[in-house]
Hints:
Layout: H1 22-35, H2 39-53, E1 59-63, H3 69-77, E2 84-89, H4 92-103, E3 110-115, E4 126-132, H5 140-153, E5 154-165, H6 171-187, H7 192-202, H8 211-221, E6 225-232, E7 235-241
Parallel strand pairs: 1-2, 1-4, 2-3, 4-5
Antiparallel strand pairs: 5-7, 6-7
Helix pairs in contact: 2-3, 5-8
Amino acid sequence: MSKSDNIYATPLEEVSSFSFDHKVVEVFPDMIKRSVPGYTAIIDGIGQIAKKYVHPNTNIYDLGCSLGAATLAIRQSVNDSSCKVIAVDNSSAMIERCRLIQSGYNFDMRVDVIEADINDLTFENASLVVLNFTLQFLPRGQRLQLLQKIHQGLNKNGVLVLSEKLTMSSDELDAHIIDIHHDFKKQNGYSDMEIAQKRAALENVLIPDTREQHYTRFQKSGFSQYDTWFQHYNFASFIAVK
């Protein structure tokens, strides 16, 4: 049972940089639900996309899997014993809990839950790769190279699903949409102090791109088709087809 997210509910003399540690793992489902508009719809959508694009005898990669919500959606939607999900995260706390969660379900589709840096992976025989709010935590200089490696490891007509927080095209519009997102958080019970301290913790940790930057990266990586399939405020999910 997920605990309520109160990590930033008391004043902190110094706000440390955000990390996916044991404190975050304990409250992660509540944090995501109250912080990321449309998250449940995106997870459901990933399951539906998997139904359409996953082929027998292929691999599926869930990169930056956290507690494995996307992995569960894929296993539930496809559940083909000839396929395998490879769920990867560099947080030992997340991986420990993800393994426990995945072991509680009896699906035919296999899953390997691996603690690793996704930049060190080799992708092969992939019909679907998921980067669900993961790329934004990588240094910008690493993002194109990762997408190029993913593209190389995808089979023909294989798909990348990439979900990210966006920066809007103009500073004024970006500021307004950020305010609307903060209102969304307030409606979900976060105080102004919690919002401010969480924002400080994520500064220089979560670095969002514009839609145009994502599209340029898809093009440079070699994807033949790409578009936005979901957006709620400044949170979006893209689909890119090899």
